Every structure is written in structure tokens, then in C-alpha cells.
Known about the structure:
It contains twelve helices and 13 strands. The chain is an alpha+beta fold. The strands form three sheets. The protein has a five-stranded antiparallel β-sheet with strand order 11-10-9-12-13, sandwiched between helices. Strands 2-1-3-4 form a four-stranded parallel β-sheet, sandwiched between helices. Helix 4 (83-90) links the parallel strand 3 (67-70) and strand 4. The model has no long low-confidence stretch (mean pLDDT 95). The structure holds adenosine-5'-diphosphate and magnesium ion. The site of magnesium ion has 2 residues, from loops.
Amino acid sequence: MIIGLTYDLRDEYLKMGFSEDETAEFDREDTISFIENTLAELGYETDRIGHIRNLVSRLARGDRWDLVFNIAEGMYGAGREAQVPALLDAYRIPYVFSGPLVLALTLNKALTKIIVKESGVATPDHAVVYKLDDIRKVDLPYPLFVKPLAEGTGKGIDPESVISGPEQLEKKCAELLNRYQQPVLVETYLSGREFTAGIVGTAEEAKCIGVIEIILKENAEKGVYSYVNKEECEERIIYSLTDQEAVDACAALALKAWKSLHAEDGGRVDIRFDQEGNPCFLEINPLAGMHPEHSDLPILAGLHGIAYRDLMRMIMDSAVTKVHKEVYV
Ligand SMILES: Nc1ncnc2c1ncn2[C@@H]1O[C@H](COP(=O)(O)OP(=O)(O)O)[C@@H](O)[C@H]1O
Ligand SMILES: [Mg+2]
């Protein structure tokens, strides 16, 4: 079985002149090698494709694959993560992970919250600031938390994302609107413990493979799993197994969110407790990082005794079942 690999390589974009921040969500060369080598160990033949423009020219040349392992995040547009799977759908080439509907929706954290809330998943109240004037319409109790509407990897998130009053709200929203050229999501601040849950599988086959607590060390930026804390996670973060009560509550919430969104094959759900200790949905990551030592999903799998190769096998088994299935949405 020939597996094409689609991804956005950070170094390639840095060489093109994009900044560290613009390329923060993209993958390192070693992540691609780890995926490639592991797929080979699992008995698959692999073929590196790369970013969407390479995919376009390869498709135009007539190249085809039995399945594509897609972790391309995309560069432009509100549907940037959805572009590769949408193109593959047009050519009827199956792929690993979710399709364009889920990837476009979940890139927008506000719309995703509305859908999961409708399915009975708790998530903090929110408002969306499209332009600075919109802060007048924000009718939520302080403290608040602000973040870019459609980013990942902690981009735009630091201790100042926790907002204690209107002046600070205006300042931070202006800064984020300007820096990221996209709306700002304003949410009630959750002050409790933080977790992330790993999910593998699709629909009724989906299961939670583990929940870990994200614990900030003394030298971490305070109160948030920020960009800096994520980048320097080896020094600043403890990824910890945790008590069964928290695990059960987070696993149930994560699976409910995963199924309500019809996410596929594997990913993560980020969760934080409110002041009373109730778990709340923060966001879903249907294209979770896949670096064996640096990414949360492989880290949490490892802490639950699931080696990287076994995690990859589980994800591939879920995806391969789709190859002969006609799935229409
Ligand atoms: N409403 C909130 N209350 C408290 N902390 C939050 C809230 N939203 C986000 N955070 C903090 O910011 C981090 C990153 O937010 P998240 O939405 O998961 O963005 P990313 O896509 O960058 O991971 C979370 O892991 C958490 O520490
Ligand atoms: Mg997150």
C-alpha cells in the first residue's frame, strides 16, 4: 500500500522568508522522518509529497496514492487546514485524519464551541471580537481569557491573555487583531487544573487512549499553557498521569466532543476545570502534533504504555478501514 505524506515543513517556509510566528504550527523535518520510518516499519511504502502546491503538481502529473497521511496545516484562509483533504476528496484519494468539514470548522474555535455545546459539552461562555469596537458588546464577567480565533500551538497566548478589566481587554484585543489579522475569541477564564485527552478512532469506534494533566513547573510562564511553555515543554512542563476521577470526567467529555464533531482517526481534546472543578472543553485538535517526544498526543500515549509505533498503527488501522468505504457527507 503506497502512502503519500502531505505536510508543511517549517524550514521550507522559513527559507521562503516567512517568520517564526507564521510557521509555528508547521512541522520539523524529524517529525516527517519519524512518521515515514514508522509507516515503513508497519509495512507501508511511503512517498513524500509535502505542501499543497506540491500536491497540486503531483496530481496534475498523474501521480496517485492508495492513502495519504495528511498533517498539512495550510498557510492561507479560514479553511487552510481543510484544503488538502478537500483536494484529495475531489480525486477520490482517501486520507488519514478528518475531512474538510471538520478541519475547517475546528480551526474556528468559536463555531466549534457552539456545536459541542449544542451536544451537551460544557465550554466557557464566549464572545467574538471582529473589530475593536466589538469589545463594547462583550457582556461576560471578569477575569476573561483572550486568544486568536483560529491558531494553535499557543500562538498569541501568554500570561497577559488573562484579562482582569476593560482597559486590558481593549489593549490585548487591539494587539491580537493587529498581529494575527483575524478575530479574537474572548472567553470566561477557567482557573482550574488543565488536561489533554487523546482519542483514536472514528465514530462508534472512537476511544480515549489516555488523559494527562498539564502541570506548569516553577520556571514556566504562569497560569497558561502558552506558546513559550509549549516550545520549551521539556524544561517547563510536567506531563503527568492523574487521578481516576479527573481521567473519567475528561475522557467522557473528550469522547462526547469528538463524536459530536465527527472527527476521524485520531487527535486530542484540550480541557480545563472551572473554579468548581467541572471539566470544560477548550478546543479540539484533529491534526494533533505527531513528534514522538515533543507533541502532546505521542507523549500522552507513551505515558499510557502505548509506544509511538503502536499509536501510529492504531491511527492507520482506523484510516485504512475508510479506504474501501464510500463516505459521503
Ligand atoms: N478560557 C480559558 N481559560 C483559561 N485558560 C485558557 C482558556 N483558553 C485557553 N486557555 C489556556 O491557553 C492554552 C492554549 O489554548 P488553546 O485554545 O488550547 O489554544 P492552542 O490551539 O494554541 O493550543 C490552553 O492550553 C490553556 O492553558
Ligand atoms: Mg490547545
